[in-house]
């Protein structure tokens, strides 16, 4: 028997050490498994986000413009049109220089300086706008979620099958199918499977976000390779990225790489199949993306009894089952939170075109960029904001036989697309929309020859003799000198506006535009203003007014509280017929700041062309009412100046077109509390800017400068202002 001695303490120590070692090994293996799991989860998540796995790195083998427009395949005498949308591709993403494929497309084709979404900058409204050319208020899809109790009792998501009846207007696939009978295919574009016109796409698979991007490419290429009699002449296709990454504010650059790889694969496939020079490809997007930093819950501020609330970065309230008025509900939140605007359909800026339909809601609530009216743990970015927010701006690229090479189109709003689609499909002018025909002529190889269509406005009935008839008892004015000026000055016959409903009265450098029905309140004044340090009268001075006896031998009935709506301070601008009794709130919030700003511009630039006037639009559709009216609903003003030399002030004409600056406004005339009561003056003026075409529509006239080309006039009339001068 062995007398071996065992050290009990030593045995315990060894056992403890082994246990510790085992724990370390187990813990290490667990951590490795956990890390591997996270990596795998990340890869799966990334694959889920992009809808693809292991797309090859872009190689750009298709790049180059050597064979541009030289289609070598029979059966493509008319190029098919492929419209491809990447959801949520912000213009800012281009600055990251990740999506090189788009840069290469632009080298051989076209790009936009920027694209403004329609309001609100949400996915469903803007995708449907791009294929109808209509603002959301007109095509019915006013948001991603819409309330219309005549069609559905609750707020309804526009992606659901129950939303079919909500889709109004005629999209491009319906118009093309109706007018030509040719084939149209759709891959997941908004509205393809809901449109109720009776002319559906020939092929339109159910939406499947999980369909890998590679399979989507194969689908598009397969459609284009079909025999001519089976091949679609129009394809619309939608891809959901990089929108999801933008909402999460995570892996955006990674998703942009995926987008780049996707475009590269598509372009390579077109190249390899000899289709690249046979197809007109247009890549678009619906909106940009804004990082969120603030949330406000409307329900905690407003009593929601009898109301329907649509949440988002723009919140909308519908009065549904309540006796409260719109103003009462709006008053519960208006001016209560700094930076939050609370509009009704009566005072929302016309430029947003968001008042015509009941579906927009009774109250529209907007916050500063970064503010949302909902809480979310995962949504760190969103969109829907006013297009004045540059983070909402997006992109457009195009390449194909119909497009010029390496051309940039000026900034535009996405209602313009419809006329481009119609032109490329040989159907220009067949479908009315909110765009302007000819806007894209500068990017097309063979655009139509367009000339300015113009008629001269009639001069009002006159009595031949021009003298001053004073319409007040003010003293100190040299009436004889003013009469000589009226009698001897050169009259302007070549005015830049035309209307069959109006005529003009000449006041030398100024012109009074009045309705042929003298009982109608609608009128306007054209002024050619030159700054003078010797001005001796204020624009707010109302003591002197006159009429030109060439057109009238009596003064109009005036109220002592009437105000001139002219911009000039000199006697020649004190037209008795250019006065109106504006409400005190309008004077405070709009008229005084606008007059001061106009005066600042005149002092800075030296000369201004100014067109101011009264308009009537009671049904809030942005179009002048046909019925006679004695009360205006809106006031408008157009300012034009030259940063260089002038050739003429009336009509306004700069020596160089590029020196032309234009600024237009449309203001509602209201005598009640509005969100303007809690905005500073510059914010009000900027919010109520408009395009010249908006003014044309609400004032019922056409604006055109005869010495400019048709294209230049179109750009001038559709120019969107995102800042004051």
Question: What does this molecule look like?
Answer:
- The protein has 725 residues and is an alpha+beta fold.
- The chain folds into three domains: 97-134 and 169-290 and 388-443, Alkaline Phosphatase, subunit A (3-Layer(aba) Sandwich), CATH 3.40.720.10; 294-379, 2-Layer Sandwich (Gyrase A, domain 2), CATH 3.30.1360; 468-717, Extracellular Endonuclease, subunit A (Extracellular Endonuclease, Chain A, 3-Layer(aba) Sandwich).
- It is 25% helix and 19% strand.
- The strands form eleven sheets. It has a seven-stranded mixed sheet with strand order 6-7-1-8-17-2-18, sandwiched between helices.
- The termini are far apart.
- The model is unreliable at 1-22, 24-28 and 30-53 (pLDDT under 50).
Please name the defining characteristics of this protein:
disordered N terminus; 34 strands; seven-stranded mixed beta sheet; 3 domains; Gyrase A, domain 2; 15 helices; glycoprotein; hydrolase activity; alpha+beta; seven-stranded antiparallel beta sheet; Alkaline Phosphatase, subunit A; Extracellular Endonuclease, Chain A; transmembrane helix; 725 residues
């Amino acid at each position: 028997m062995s007398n071996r001695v065992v050290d009990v303490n030593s045995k315990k120590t060894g056992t403890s050490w082994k246990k510790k070692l085992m724990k370390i090994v187990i813990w290490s293996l667990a951590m490795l498994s956990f890390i591997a799991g996270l990596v795998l989860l990340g890869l799966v998540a990334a694959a889920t986000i992009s809808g693809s796995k292991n797309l090859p790195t872009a190689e750009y083998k298709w790049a180059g413009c050597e064979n541009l427009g030289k289609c070598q395949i029979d059966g493509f005498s008319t190029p098919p049109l492929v419209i491809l949308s990447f959801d949520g591709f912000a213009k800012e993403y281009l600055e990251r220089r990740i999506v090189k494929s788009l840069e290469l497309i632009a080298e051989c084709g076209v790009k936009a300086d920027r694209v403004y979404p329609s309001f609100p900058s949400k996915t469903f409204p803007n995708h449907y706008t791009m294929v109808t050319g209509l603002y959301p208020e007109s095509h019915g899809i006013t948001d991603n979620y819409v309330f219309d109790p005549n069609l559905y009792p609750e707020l309804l998501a526009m992606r659901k099958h129950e939303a079919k009846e909500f889709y109004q207007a005629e999209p491009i696939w319906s118009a093309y199918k109706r007018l030509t009978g040719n084939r149209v295919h759709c891959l997941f574009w908004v509205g393809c499977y809901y449109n109720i016109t009776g002319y559906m796409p020939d092929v339109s698979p159910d939406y499947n976000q999980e369909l890998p991007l590679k399979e989507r490419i194969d689908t598009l290429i397969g459609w284009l390779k079909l025999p001519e009699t089976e091949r679609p002449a129009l394809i619309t296709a939608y891809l959901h990225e990089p929108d999801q990454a933008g909402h999460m504010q995570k892996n955006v650059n990674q998703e942009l790489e995926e987008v780049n790889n996707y475009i590269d694969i598509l372009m390579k496939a077109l190249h390899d199949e000899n289709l690249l020079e046979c197809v007109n490809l247009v890549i678009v997007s619906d909106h940009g993306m804004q990082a969120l930093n603030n949330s406000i819950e409307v329900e905690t501020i407003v009593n929601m009894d009898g109301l329907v609330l649509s949440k988002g970065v723009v919140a909308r309230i519908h009065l549904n089952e309540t006796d409260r008025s719109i103003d009462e509900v709006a008053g519960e939140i208006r001016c209560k939170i700094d930076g939050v605007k609370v509009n009704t359909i009566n005072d929302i800026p016309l430029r947003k075109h968001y008042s015509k339909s009941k579906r927009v809601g009774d109250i529209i609530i907007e916050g500063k960029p970064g503010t949302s009216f909902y809480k979310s743990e995962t949504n760190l970015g969103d969109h829907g904001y006013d297009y004045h927010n540059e983070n909402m701006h997006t992109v457009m690229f195009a390449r194909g036989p119909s497009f010029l090479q390496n051309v940039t189109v000026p900034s535009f709003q996405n209602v313009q697309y419809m006329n481009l689609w119609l032109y490329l499909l040989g159907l220009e002018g067949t479908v009315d929309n909110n765009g302007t025909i000819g806007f894209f002529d500068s990017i097309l190889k063979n655009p139509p020859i367009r000339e300015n269509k113009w008629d001269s406005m009639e001069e009002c009935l006159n009595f031949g003799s021009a003298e001053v008839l004073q319409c007040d008892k003010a003293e100190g004015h040299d009436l004889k000198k003013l009469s000589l000026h009226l009698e001897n000055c050169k009259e302007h016959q070549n005015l830049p506006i035309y209307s069959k409903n109006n005529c003009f009265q000449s006041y030398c450098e100024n012109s009074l535009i009045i309705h042929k029905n003298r009982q109608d309140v609608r009128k306007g004044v054209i002024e050619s203003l030159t700054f003078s340090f010797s001005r001796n009268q204020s624009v707010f001075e109302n003591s002197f007014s006159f009429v030109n006896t060439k057109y009238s031998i009596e003064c109009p009935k005036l109220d002592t509280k009437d105000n001139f709506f002219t911009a000039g301070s000199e006697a020649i601008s004190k037209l008795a017929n250019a006065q109106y009794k504006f409400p005190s709130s309008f004077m405070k919030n709009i008229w005084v700041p606008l007059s001061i700003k106009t005066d600042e511009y005149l002092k800075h630039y030296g000369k201004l062309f100014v067109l101011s006037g009264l308009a009537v639009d009671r049904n809030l559709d942005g179009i002048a009412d046909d019925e006679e009216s004695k009360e205006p609903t809106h006031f408008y003003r157009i300012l034009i100046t030259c940063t260089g030399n002038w050739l003429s002030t009336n009509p306004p004409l700069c020596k160089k077109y590029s020196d032309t600056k234009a600024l237009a406004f449309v203001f509602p005339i209201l005598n009640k509390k509005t969100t303007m009561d809690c905005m500073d003056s510059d914010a009000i003026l900027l919010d109520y800017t408009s395009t010249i075409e908006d003014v044309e529509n609400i004032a019922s006239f056409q604006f055109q400068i005869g010495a400019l080309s048709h294209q230049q006039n179109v750009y001038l009339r559709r120019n969107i202002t995102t800042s004051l001068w």
